[in-house]
């Protein structure tokens, strides 16, 4: 769909859906500007008002599935409506490229839009990287025991299909840099790929990725990161951390529409990853594929729901307008208050790293006398949404604080857990 069609459709939509909340969201930048100078809590109230999140519930699970703010929802509805005015195959290349420019800016000042492909999420991206790399029987890969099923299943498939050997390290939660030694001790001359979570889904642990990336590169090993939990949840510069491959779902902390995400392949490595599925490119079957489409768009398969990705661009605008460092400071501050409170509750064990530098906006904990299900049920009965953590045999709970939360949510969650502890 073309930009002019979009503008035409938007007018029609505005006439049809002139709801107060839509109007409120119409100019988010202006709302923020007006909120400036009226106090920090007022500023965050304005942002909180951009979410449809069910009243009466305390939503502490952005790490599970994020919520889209109104500017993103409105953009999605507008673009979808316009598409239906005159359905056309393919996508608006100019608008598509503009989304990548916005996304690259979120990922760091030297990230290039050409290093990005838009995909459905981390699971698809992980499959593309792990299945796309050339690995021979006996080649070794290193990952952690705290990975999401998306990484585990992709590696297990390669193990079963190609005889790739999987080696695992248990994340060191006492010493962040201890992870470097754990990984180093697994490296052999057969190690080809180190790939694990930038931020774990289990305990919100941030790894010293820059140091691990250097270790990998010094030994000629590929370094991939599953960033499903990282962008916006922790500030970073994708070029600086040295990842060769990076994948992410933008429907979590980036607040894009469900089933949007991206893969990043560092400049120079495009041909290391063989596309497993074809694309829309007009191919001459007599020529090598790489010659015909030497860009990241070779990973953008088939017909797209372009509205999803154009609205993802709007999500990038949303986080940039607020400021990623500002969002992180706020959310991490609440998480730290929560960690401090947890430490005072008898029978509670913190599962997140001991050093603050490796903690993010998610906290993992468990209780000596309660199962994760008992804690989860108790939280749900008190209208608190959190996530149970069975991975790695943790039997714990994960709590995410984000821009939808207020400091009183920390007390609410702590009080609720305290009641279970007595
Ligand atoms: C670390 C990690 N990797 C991968 C995924 C899979 O993401 P998706 O289901 O959006 O593809 C998740 C989802 O929670 C995750 O936390």
Strands of the widest sheet, in order across it, are 2-8-7-6-5-3-4
Tell me the CATH superfamily of the largest domain. Type I PLP-dependent aspartate aminotransferase-like (Major domain)
Bound molecules: pyridoxal-5'-phosphate
What's the number of extended β-strand segments? 13
Q: What number of structural domains do the residues give?
A: 2
Strand content: 5-15%
The ordered string of helix (H) and strand (E) elements is HHHHEHHEHEHEHEHEEEHHHEEHEEEH
* CATH class annotation of the largest domain: Alpha Beta
Main beta sheet: 7 strands, mixed
Count of helix runs: 15
SS content category: alpha/beta
| CATH fold description of the largest domain | Aspartate Aminotransferase, domain 2
Please report the distance between the alpha carbons of the first and last residues: 59 Å
**Helix content percent band:** 40-55%
Radius of gyration: 22 Å
Unreliably modeled segments: 11-25
| Integer average pLDDT | 92
Question: From the coordinates shown, what is the CATH architecture of the largest domain?
Answer: 3-Layer(aba) Sandwich
Overall shape: it is globular
What's the layout of helices and strands?
Blueprint: H1 3-16, H2 20-26, H3 28-35, H4 40-48, E1 58-59, H5 70-85, H6 93-107, E2 116-119, H7 122-132, E3 140-144, H8 149-162, E4 165-169, H9 178-184, E5 191-197, H10 209-218, E6 222-226, E7 245-249, E8 261-265, H11 289-292, H12 306-322, H13 324-342, E9 348-350, E10 362-367, H14 372-381, E11 384-385, E12 387-389, E13 396-400, H15 407-421
Parallel strand pairs: 1-11, 3-4, 3-5, 5-6, 6-7
Antiparallel strand pairs: 2-8, 7-8, 9-10, 10-13, 12-13
Helix pairs in contact: 1-5, 5-12, 6-12, 7-8, 13-15
The structure holds pyridoxal-5'-phosphate.
């Amino acid at each position: 769909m073309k930009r002019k069609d979009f503008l035409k459709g938007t007018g029609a939509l505005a006439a049809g859906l002139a709801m107060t909340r839509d109007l409120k969201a119409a100019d988010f930048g202006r709302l923020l500007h007006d909120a400036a100078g009226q106090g920090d809590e007022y500023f965050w109230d304005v942002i909180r008002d951009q979410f449809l999140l069910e009243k009466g519930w305390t939503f502490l699970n952005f790490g599970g599935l994020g919520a889209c703010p109104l500017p993103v929802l409105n953009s999605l509805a507008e673009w979808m409506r316009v598409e239906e005015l005159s359905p056309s195959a393919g996508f608006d290349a100019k608008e598509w490229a503009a989304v990548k420019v916005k996304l690259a800016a979120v990922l760091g000042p030297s990230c290039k839009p050409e290093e990005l492909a838009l995909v459905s999420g981390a699971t698809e991206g992980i499959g593309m990287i792990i299945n796309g790399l050339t690995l021979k029987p006996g080649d070794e890969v290193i990952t952690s025991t705290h990975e999401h099923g998306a990484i585990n299943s992709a590696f297990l498939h390669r193990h079963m299909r190609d005889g790739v050997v999987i080696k695992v390290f248990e994340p060191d939660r006492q010493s962040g840099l201890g992870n470097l030694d754990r990984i180093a001790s697994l490296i052999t001359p057969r190690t080809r790929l180190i790939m694990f979570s930038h931020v774990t889904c289990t305990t919100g642990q941030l790894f010293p990725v820059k140091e691990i990336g250097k270790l990998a590169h010094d030994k000629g090993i590929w370094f991939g990161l599953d960033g499903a939990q990282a962008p916006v949840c922790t500030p970073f510069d994708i070029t600086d951390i040295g990842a060769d491959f990076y994948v992410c779902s933008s429907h979590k902390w980036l607040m894009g529409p469900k089933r949007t995400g991206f893969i990043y392949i560092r400049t120079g490595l495009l041909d290391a990853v063989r596309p497993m599925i074809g694309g829309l490119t007009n191919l001459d079957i007599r020529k090598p594929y790489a010659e015909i489409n030497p860009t990241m768009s070779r990973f953008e398969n088939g017909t797209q729901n372009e509205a999803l990705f154009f609205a993802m661009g709007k999500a990038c605008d949303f986080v940039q307008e607020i400021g990623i460092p500002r969002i992180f400071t706020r959310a991490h501050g609440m998480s730290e208050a929560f960690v401090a409170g947890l430490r005072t509750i008898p029978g509670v064990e913190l599962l997140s790293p001991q050093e603050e530098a490796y903690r993010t906006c998610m906290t993992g904990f468990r209780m000596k006398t309660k199962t994760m299900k008992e804690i989860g049920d108790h939280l749900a009965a008190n209208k608190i949404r959190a996530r149970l953590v069975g991975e790695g045999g943790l039997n714990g709970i994960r709590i995410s604080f984000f821009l939808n939360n207020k400091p009183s949510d920390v007390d609410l969650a702590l009080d609720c857990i305290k009641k279970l502890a007595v």
